[in-house]
Amino acid sequence: xxxxxxxxxxxxxxxxxxxxxxxxxxxxxxxxxxxxxxxxxxxxxxxxxxxxxxxxxxxxxxxxxxxxxxxxxxxxxxxxxxxxxxxxxxxxxxxxxxxxxxxxxxxxxxxxxxxxxxxxxxxxxxxxxxxxxxxxxxxxxxxxxxxxxxxxxxxxxxxxxxxxxxxxxxxxxxxxxxxxxxxxxxxxxxxxxxxxxxxxxxxxxxxxxxxxxxxxxxxxxxxxxxxxxxxxxxxxxxxxxxxxxxxxxxxxxxxxxxxxxxxxxxxxxxxxxxxxxxxxxxxxx
Length: 285
Hints:
Layout: E1 6-12, E2 15-23, E3 35-36, E4 41-42, E5 63-66, E6 72-75, H1 77-83, E7 90-98, E8 107-115, H2 120-133, E9 135-143, E10 146-155, E11 158-164, H3 188-201, H4 213-227, H5 250-277, H6 281-284
Parallel strand pairs: 1-7
Antiparallel strand pairs: 1-2, 2-8, 3-4, 5-6, 7-9, 8-11, 9-10, 10-11
């Protein structure tokens, strides 16, 4: 199990359950790197000015958001941090709904929730109560400087959290050229035969029956070619940027935030004292 990506508490009513959040999924597909076929040199990762074609330093890059008439509004890191939702360590359950009410189109990424020390009993209480009620909790969580809508649900011995897409992130279906809903001009015999075929193919959901055949085939091909001596040496030209692990050190972030606030408060106090101690314009005259 990887490191926790978030620590905080589930809140429903007056009950708080300290928990840690762990990714419940992992990437298993084959990762293809780009190479120059002439020299087997790695390709990518360079910061290139698209107009001049020249590489620029990281310190020269700023963040811009496209606005009207192709103009950009440039935002500093400090401005972005100020605009982000305030960090919160609470998964505040807002309501409970039947799981069947949540369409699969809203589902994004699953996580496991683990109870903190001495929180096992209340964790089990929420899990079992939700199982008996056959409901899932709808809540919000601020993680990685972004607010997410989430579904909290029992899954065997675990409570799981699944991030959901916001309603405005789902594109409307109207622009698509689709047949109208309902049987329309379909013949009863056609519907009957289609229904019979579906029933014959029906079965219980067993995810272990399905595997990523493409990645498996690529790995076998790579192994065969490597065994046959067809692997080529590649000399790295630059260090690739570290992969995002979605792991944040909350303690360090909180410590830095507190230090920043203390400095800001100290600066405000010093500025206030300076203003009080400075002679007024009238006294100087």
